[in-house]
Write a structure and sequence with these properties.
The protein is 8% helix and 45% strand. It has 2 domains: 127 residues, Immunoglobulin-like; 113 residues, Immunoglobulin-like, CATH 2.60.40. It has 3 helices and 20 strands. It comes from Patiria miniata.
Length: 266
Amino acid sequence: MDFIANVQVLVILTVGILSGRGCVLEQPIGDGKPNFINEISSTEIAYVGNAKSLDCAAVNFCSVTWYKDGIPLPWAPQEAAQDPNQAEKSQILRFKQLEFGDQAEYTCIVSNGVENINRTIRLVVLEDSRADKPIFLGSNGGSCTDRTAEVGETVRFSCEFFVGKALLTQSFVSWYRVDKKGQTPAEWLEDIETQTEQSSRMDSVIVSNLEIPNIKDNAFGSWMALIYSNGYQADAVVSVNPSPTGNGGTAKSLLEKIKMGFQKHE
């Protein structure tokens, strides 16, 4: 059964409470562990008044729960219990007609009753398909966040900027080393090896990659991706930090907020 949240958002609701505790996976596939089916971008762009869907399709699950900026979306257990296919439907979060208030980070938690996996998607809502100024979107898969590494390892960053279709071919990104001396273009560095690459997606997003192979001590610190578009600039600053454990770093996510919410309900 469909449920309308805040008039404009069509949410196909879910079975299960919070992290899926209490649900039972009846027909496991393979090892029975939950896994996402589709690879998606961590940032989705849509326009006011349009419809939009966010994908959390998975296998081996009995519960899917959605959160907006760490707050669980409303759900109706009686309606869900009447529909045996409700868990299947709840993999997709559908917006019938977007508003600016729908812009947020949406997290889905998929559970098989024992193990959970999660995915966070940033939804950016714009007024139209032409951007006057470039907008920093973040990264695909959390790869435009601070990293930790050991000497000799390779570090990669991938940062995304929305520029709009009309300005896609006229926009470009440059990478800089940022330190006490100021900003030095990556290609000017003689003592640090770097590789950069620029591509696009969705005919409106610039994707800029920086790779620092065989890291040395002088590569630790801040790096900046600076985009030039339509006479405007936007930037993303990331850092490479020495790893105290040698295991590398991980990006922070909304899952920490959600876990705090679980603890309050226990």
